[in-house]
Amino acid sequence: MSEGQVTVAELAEKADKYLHDTSLTPEEYEALKQGIAELSPIFSAETAYFVLGSYGRPEIRRLQLVKDRLNRQPGAYAFLMVDIRSEWTNTYLKFRLLADYTDMIVGVAEHSQGGFLVEQGYFTALDEYFEKTHVFKREYETLDLEHIDTGVTSENPYSGMQTSIFEMLDDGGRLCRWATEDDLVECVNRLC
């Protein structure tokens, strides 16, 4: 990113802003300082990608696939939220700081069961996140519930909230549909 190196003080100031009139405890401040070392690839990459999605057993493999493909580009750094391992007691704060400093937020949507539903709400409510968000939406040719590996239990694997988000992203040219892992790789290639 072109912003240069971010300091602990800048992150702490932003953290205080997100925590709405509360201040960081000395322990939280120290944890934030330690976490900066893990965040340094975000600040030094030409393009940083924050990859979001469900962490269920089959889904995490596809998130790793997307992350791997993005990281093959020169100057790219793609990561999952779990890759930043420092102790964060406040995942809302962790998400906001990571989203603030990445160039692109990439969602891999497969269903409405868990995953990143809360984050989808954040990136639609906040323009600065929505403008840098791209989503790869899984399409099911036929929804044979016995053979789907995602735990989907209804005829429509997505919620009404997600459907509206997908429509807004599609209108902005930032939605890519996929059915197979080869299609998912093609979505990544189109993003790059």
Strand count? 5
CATH architecture assignment: 3-Layer(aba) Sandwich
DSSP strand content: 5-15%
Radius of gyration: 17 Å
Structural class: alpha/beta
Account of the protein in words:
The chain is built from 8 helices and 5 strands, in the order ααβαβαβααβαβα. The relative contact order is 0.14. Strand 1 (47-53), helix 3 (57-71) and strand 2 form a beta-alpha-beta unit. Helix content is 48%, strand content 15%. It has helices at 8-18, 26-44, 57-71, 91-101, 117-125, 127-130, 160-171, 181-191; strands spanning 47-53, 76-80, 104-109, 133-138, 175-178. The protein is globular. It has a 5-stranded parallel sheet with strand order 2-1-3-4-5, with helices on both faces. Helix 3 (57-71) packs parallel to helix 8 (181-191). It has one domain (46-191): Rossmann fold.
What are the salient characteristics of this protein?
alpha/beta, 5-stranded parallel beta sheet, 192 residues, globular, 8 helices, Rossmann fold
Q: Summed up, what is this model?
A:
With 192 residues, the protein is α/β, with parallel strands linked by helices. 48% of the residues lie in helices and 15% in strands.
